[in-house]
């Protein structure tokens, strides 16, 4: 049989097998098309999968997990692609202090072996994650960006890192922080400040700076930060990421450097609401109905929003674009059937000064001896920030705690009437970094009250102004992370803000 007659005979046999009748001219056309396809396919390498490109890094964690489980992707490939992107992009972002290439690839290989053996550790299995450098990773310095901690190698993992590893996550590296989670950005620290991927000459918005920069810049889908006054949420507002501050005490802080123990929280900064929710579930160890992710995909129709517009709309510091974006975001949820009513939250200025006093008093007590005996271990701005609580009396601190307790009760009462509260997070978009290089500059936010009240708060991007992100806060009842996640995802799916990312540097 000649080469030309082979497709014709194959086509004729297939027509007869399937009981189809065609004319001679139609059969010739089918044979010609079949010959083209057979010849083309014969030139392709058999069983040769397409190479894994960096595009996979922009997929949600759930989709990455599906590909890891059905064999379209391996954790080693995903981790290698992550490392390659970090090598290229982080020269501009400076979000990583340490990239753990060797151990990450070894852990990824084990993650692949586990899946092949039928051992599935959960939604983060095989997924790279970054860790703020206030959190211990065994064998790696926990520097806190402080001069005196350059060689402070952690003997063991923090509990949250242990839980991530147990859940199959790949620890890819340590991420930038303001020194001791105090003030910044500060070029005199142990490392240069992380930079905002949306505009490199603007701030990232809080001490979990590297977490937000790495997620916004597409280097990782999820990261672990800390929040004592807003440092999971502030960077998320300014960098267009999702930050989830859990209920106080939900996530263990053992192995995490303290700033103010009664205010310290650990939580994820992630690319989407769902990514943040599944990350929090690994950190908290929750399962079943207690999971933050348990209400994903559920509608918000009939649920009640208390819109605390009084916390920002009439403040002279608030950009008009922030008010416009928040009003529009609440309208989006209203269109989906949520019932919106305006509520009055307690005076923001009063709770801000009260919690600042608690924070400075606790942080000074933790550092007083080292500030006295080893001042050279601190950068000057961090030294002064930590020393700021030295003159506060016990009576003043107790008064501040009483104000905090009153604020908590007021929020609880509002949440008895509403399912969630919504308000602004930052009153402006990210500010230019240049003024911060000269001195500490106050950034106007509405975050710190919820550190003393302990309520869970979700930060979600809701718009842009002149190319810089704007975010809102969704506040829920204690241990009701699932509800704020439900609202956050409902908004996210009705808009495109969470999928927008800055162009590569």
Structural class based on helices, strands and sheet pairing: alpha/beta
Biggest beta-sheet profile: 11 strands, mixed
CATH superfamily: Amidase signature (AS) domain
Mean pLDDT rating? 92
Residues in helices, as a percent range:
40-55%
Q: Spatial order of the strands in the main sheet?
A: 1-3-2-4-6-5-10-11-9-7-8
- Integer-rounded radius of gyration: 26 Å
User: How many alpha or pi helices?
Assistant: 15
Order of helices and strands: HHHHEHEHEHEHEEHEHEHHHEHEEH
Quote the distance from N terminus to C terminus.
59 Å
Query: What portion of the residues fall into strands of 2 or more residues?
Result: 5-15%
Keywords: Ligase, Transferase
GO molecular function: ligase activity; transferase activity
Function: Hydrolyzes indole-3-acetamide (IAM) into indole-3-acetic acid (IAA).
InterPro entries: Amidase (IPR000120), Amidase_CS (IPR020556), Amidase_dom (IPR023631), AS_sf (IPR036928)
